[in-house]
Amino acid sequence: MGALVLALTALGLSLVFGVMRIVNVAHGEFFMLGAIVAWYVSTLTGSFLLALLVAPVAVAGVAVLADRFVLRRIGYEPESTIVATIGLLYILQQTVLTTYGPYARPVEAPVYFRVDFPWFGYSGYKLVVAGVAAVLLLVTWMALSRTTLGLQMRATQQDREMAQAFAVPVGRVYTVVFGVGAGLAAAAGALIVPVQQAHYLMGLDALLMSFVVVILGGLGSLRGTLVAAFVVGLSDGAISVLFSPTLAKIVATLLVALVLAVRGRGLFGEELA
Amino acid sequence: MTPLLETRALSKRFGGLEAVSAVDFSLDRGEVRALIGPNGAGKTTLVSLISGRLGPTSGRVLFAGRDITGLGPWDRANLGIVYTFQITSIYRSLSVFDNVALAAQRRRLRRLADWVALDRAAVAADVEAALDTAGLGGLRDQQAGALAYGHQRALEVAMAMALKPELLILDEPTQGLAPEDIEALCRLVRDLARVATVLLIEHNMEVVLELASRVTVMDAGRIIAEGTPREIEAHPEVQRAYLGR
Amino acid sequence: MTDDRRGLALGLHLGVLALLGALQLVLPPFHHGMVARVMVLAAYAVGYNVLLGYTGLMSLGHAMFFAAGMYGTGLTIQHWGFGAGAGFLAGIVAGLAVAAAVGLVTLRTAGPAFLIVTMMLAQAFNLATLYFNDVTGGDQGFILSGLGLDLFGVRLAFADPAVKYNAALVVFAACLLLSFWLTGSPAGRVLLALKENEERTRLLGYNTVRCRLFAVVVSGLLSAVAGSTYTLLFSYVGSTFGGILYSIYPLLWTLLGGAGTTLGPLVGTLVMTYFVDVASAITTGYLIVVGAALIVMVLWAPAGIVGGIRVRWAPWLP
User: Fold this and answer.
1) Which of B167, B213, B216 is nearest to B36 (CA)?
2) B154 with B136: CB under 8 angstroms?
């Protein structure tokens, strides 16, 4: 996974973590679902651009439904929420398995060109992916720092009761954040399909790597998420090439476990943007 | 005679705020000492440093002449320093019996083997005794969270008694109690004072005057006066800082 | 709890075990094998319940304890020629070592942080078994054969269904009775206290750090015992059992049966194993019942089956 795509996925998780104070174990499945929807749309209509637009919106819709009918009803109680999102994980994953099937299917890249440097070549689509991801990150950042909704999110993150007292519609903010978080993951999933293929089990890796990035980068911190995504993305790539992808994942998960173990209870503590 | 408890230049900083600043405090065996002062004076912080809930920024705590600054709260509890919470802190989902049994069994779990072969009958007897003294005799099988507020406070004290404290720290025990419950609690504390040294944080001056043999006054993290209740009542600085006269 | 109620509860537990023992006489072969498997997995859930139900820590990495028992037993038998008994011990030692290490690493975490750390550690453990696939067999795993015990000159082959069933019953009974004993012991009382209010428990004189470590080790140990038993009785070792699904299963079984009840893990495992079995005959996406069960429980039955019975009819259930 490219560093910017990883950053996009992780940002979604970080938003949900930071504002709603919940651990969304189904986040990886939103990523997967984004890829699957993108495959369907681009196969049916032949337009990958349309797929890129539809996937995040459709997945955000699924997330909003899950928020309304499950998470809100259990009051976002931390442990119940974790259990509920594990349930959601299996429902999404197994639904895709029964409908889409156990296949790994690619979408043709919408652009064909290679950028050739003297010592190595680079597929043009990967640059497009990086570009789109960067734009999405920028837009999210602008939305968080410049809009009323962004302000409400930050207020809710800082102090839920206080935000409520200042007439922030916390319930609606939660729904929007959960939807946007899922939408970001889905956008990342859709972007990656031409490079990686869509498969019903691709969510777990995305989830674990997002956890790694979010925990190393600090919760709810956009800058931290970006920096961590680059460090994790590049070192993951380097170790994968030099040794093995499995070893890279072992190192990343162990590292994160130790960081979190040392930092202890300070999981929910950092500021947004 | 060595005092039971002594603090030397004890300080605690929270960020920029010095909640307790260089406090030298000493308490003799057998006293009932009241600790008074306005809100934010550092009373709860001071007793937290003594019970080990908080670690000090600097300074030392001595118990019966022994330096206990480095000991964890559980070790201090086992030495006999027992703290009861300002906010009622019982195990709401457990029965009244289990609440007190948690305290009573602790003294009988000295060695690892005790965990396997605990003398249950002895623990049960200790529990019954503590419940009877606290006036909770008939409520042993009730769930603690379902008790009336006054009974919850009494349960808190019963847990403290079952630990057989040397030094009992009571953090605002009468807060929120009805007058008749306050009277019952005062009786209880007087009973306790026969076997333990008591350090009492209290806002209710009537309770202070009735129970305390000596009074210590804190303000802004420092001790500003100390003496018999009568001396303290007359102390000009105390009247200004605290009694508001 | 008063002593006569405790006696009643003990009677119930012994009755359940006797029922399980008697069932083997009437069950048709398929269900005979199913129930044997359920008992081993229920032992795993009993271990999980010690941590979730009685200490209040939700782990998402218990598969590493199960797998530690599995690999500790399987690898020593496969590579070093250990017998079943020695292999079983090796599984227990491996489980203890992993549980102690995890307990120490996670000491300062609670709530979601504990969950994520255990998930990450289990993932690292699982990936490691894939990485060293020349030793562990990785995904494919390996099959053991000819396992059995010589007891008083009688050869008990684990391939024999009756031996399998009764061995599973013995292991499950040991785990269940240990957990029953724990609930009535001073240590169990302290764990419940820890679950409800850690700071209060510290000030009652308990070293809560050590108590937590104890809970993680006991929970990990029981899980490893189950993993080791699974290897011995079903002759298979593979990395699937260390994957995230096998960390989620005991959570599901425990919640479904009722976290914090001694019999809940058995009930939950039994019900869910049959559910999954029925669903797998209908669809390839049969794990959807896992997801559906989790959500249904969270919304409508947070106390689980035995937990609900306790609330409504039998408050004396441990």
Assistant:
1) B216
2) yes
Q: Looking at the DSSP assignment, which residues form a beta bridge with residue B214?
A: B33
Residues 6+ apart with CB under 8 A from A263: C113
**C259 φ/ψ angles, rounded to the nearest 5 degrees:** -65, 140
Residue for token pair 């599984």 = C91
Q: Mutate which of C60, C104, C116 to disrupt the A interface (most A C-beta within 10 Å)?
A: C116
A160-189 average pLDDT score? 88
Instruction: Give the residues of chain B that fall short of pLDDT 50.
Output: 245
CA-nearest residue of chain B to C207? B74
Q: Mean pLDDT over residues C242-261, rounded?
A: 95
pLDDT at residue A267, rounded to an integer: 47
CA dihedral C97, C102, C108, C109 (to 10 degrees): -160
Q: CB under 8 Å to B102, separation ≥6 — which residues?
A: B91, B94, B159, C189, C190, C193, C201, C204
Chain B positions touching C196 (Cβ under 8 A) are 91-94
- Give the residue from B49, B98, B102, B126 with the most C CB atoms within 10 Å of its CB, the best one to mutate: B102
- Asked if A247 lies within 8 A of C131 by C-beta distance, the reply is yes
Contact predicate B95/B143, CB 8 Å: yes
Residue A232 Cα, gap to closest chain C Cα (Å): 15
CATH 3.40.50.300, chain B: domain bounds: 1-80+166-188+197-245
Domain boundaries in chain A? 3-263
Q: Is the pLDDT of residue A231 over 90?
A: no
**How far is residue C18's CA from residue C169's CA, in Å, rounded to a whole number?**
10
H or E element at residue C27: none
Taking CB atoms and an 8 Å limit, are A258 and C105 in contact across chains? yes
Nearest to C186 among B53, B95, B115 (CB): B115
Which residues in chain C are closer than 8 Å to B116, comparing Cβ atoms?
A: 185
How many B-C residue pairs are in contact by the CB < 8 A criterion? 69
- C206: chain B residues, CB-CB within 8 Å: 74, 106
In angstroms, rounded to a whole number, what is the distance separating the alpha carbons of residues B90 and C200?
Answer: 8
**Which chains share 3+ C-beta pairs under 8 angstroms with B?**
C
Confidence of residue A235 (pLDDT cuts 50, 70, 90): confident
What secondary structure does DSSP assign to A213-271, as a single string? Answer: HHHHH-TT-HHHHHHHHHHHHHHHHHHHHHT-HHHHHHHHHHHHHHHHHHHTTTTS-PP
Question: Which residues does chain C have within 8 Å of residue A246's beta carbon, measured at their own beta carbons?
Answer: 127, 130-131
CB contact under 8 A, C109 and A261: yes
Instruction: For chain C, list the contacting chains (3+ Cβ pairs, <8 Å).
Output: A, B
Q: Kindly state the average pLDDT of the residues C260-266.
A: 95
Considering only A1-10, A113-122, C103-112, C186-195, which range has the smallest mean pLDDT? A113-122
C124 neighbourhood in chain A, CB within 8 Å:
249-250, 253-254, 257
Instruction: Tell me which of 3.40.50.300, 3.40.1620.10, 3.40.50.2300, 3.30.2350.10 is the CATH number of domain B1-80+166-188+197-245.
Output: 3.40.50.300
CA atoms of C30 and B56, how far apart (whole Å):
65
Q: Which of A27, A36, A98 is nearest to A66 (CA)?
A: A27
Quote the CA–CA distance of A112 and A32 in Å, as a whole number: 25
Domain A3-263: give its CATH code.
1.10.3470
- pLDDT above 90 covers a percentage of chain A that reads 38
Domain ranges of chain C: 8-241
Q: Which residues of B touch C (CB under 8 A)?
A: 51-53, 72-75, 77-78, 82-83, 85, 89-95, 98, 101-103, 105-106, 109, 115-116, 118, 123, 141, 159, 163
Contact in structure between B213 and B197 (CB atoms under 8 Å): no
